[in-house]
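Inputs:
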Amino acid sequence: MSSLTTNNGAPLPDNEHSLTAGTRGPVLMQDFQLTEKLAAFARERIPERVVHAKGAGAFGYFEATADMSAHTKAHIFSKAGRRTPALARFSTVGGEKRLGRCRARSARFCAEILYRGRQLRPCRQ
Amino acid sequence: MVHTHKRNPQTNLKDHNAFWDFFSHSPESTHMVTILFSDRGIPANFRHMHGFGSHTFKWVNANGEACWVKYHFKTEAGIKNLTAEECAHLAGTDPDHATRDLFEHLKSGQVAAWKAYVQIMPLAAAETYRFDPFDVTKVWLYSDYPLIPIGRLVLDRNPQNFYADIEQAAFSPANLVPGVEVSPDKLLQGRLFSYPDAARYRLGANFAQLPVNQAKVPIANHQRDGLMRVDGNGGSALNYAPNSYGGPVAVPSTKEVPSALTGTTGRTEYPQASKADDFEQAGMLWRVLKPDEQDRLVANLSGHLRGAERAIQERQVQHFVKADATYGARIAKALGISFKP
């Protein structure tokens, strides 16, 4: 079992009780383990994407099935059988992260694919 | 606790197993879980539900005499709840139904109102009351500390701009006036820091200058600068104290009432934690529910618990058994768990 630690690596003496002045007293400011935990919790959320907010994704690969070097010098299309690692994310265009899709009949689905850091966006609208 | 109500870190899906894993390891949550899965867990909208301040505060009168209080707000519109089926339907057809109800109700010229009450506990009684009065997982029984009417909360005006008026609003239990002080309630103690801290992250260091958050009295201190400072920043006044040239001074008449302390610093349970079990109040609630209310509670709980592993279901059922044998037996039966009273 690994030790529970603060973010600077110090072991936590107790994960259930804050440090108080006596059993009935107020919580002490010297409980830096607590303030670290509270401050981290308050900062968990980053702004959601303004568009394409709700989505899901997975890792895989793109496999070229033809040599397209006559038309492009792009490495990933240069040889049949060449595999390039890929990450794809599917999302709604409009709408919000928190809402379900039940009412989003007008939502268009989009797929963004990241090949080795370059982004292509085949869109079906 | 909040992490178990959100999404699984890998699947990004709601996770009933995590929800019940946490609660089954936190028996003090049994009362809250019972309320959450009762009819009152799904209010029909914002107007038809009561409010409860949860935390214990200290009231202080002009003579410096103090007492402990808990706030209650009882809706004048009466309680109305949704069934689980109605809720599931609304989640698909109008997930904003409660927002819509409040806005349209106020727009039509009507008001939303709650009668406000406090329970008052003498300072010394905190040491001997059988439920720790600073433990938010326990309530003060009305029979011990009855509701005393203090006023009425009335909402009669819609926001003009949702973002400016509501999204930028920063609530905090540290927004206190002289006459209202804090208690050693540990959850309150944490929130005194974390609510304004969350606002500093979400809205910025000068969130208190946003119109909706602005104080109604003049602000005078030695704090300066920071992102989005828009209030004149103290002008030419000195930004240090003490100094030889004047400026705002402290108000000793607003000093907090002293609290006696005993013992040593430490990480401990509430002193009265051992006097009352974590299940008694959940059992009291079960026994005042009408038969049809009990039926829905059992259906709601067992339906949700089915999403958890068997071992977790069995551990959680033991909490309901300890609250009330019938309550536990009915959940066990609904889940197909063998149960011997």
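The longest strand of chain B covers residues 112-122. Flag for discussion at group meeting.
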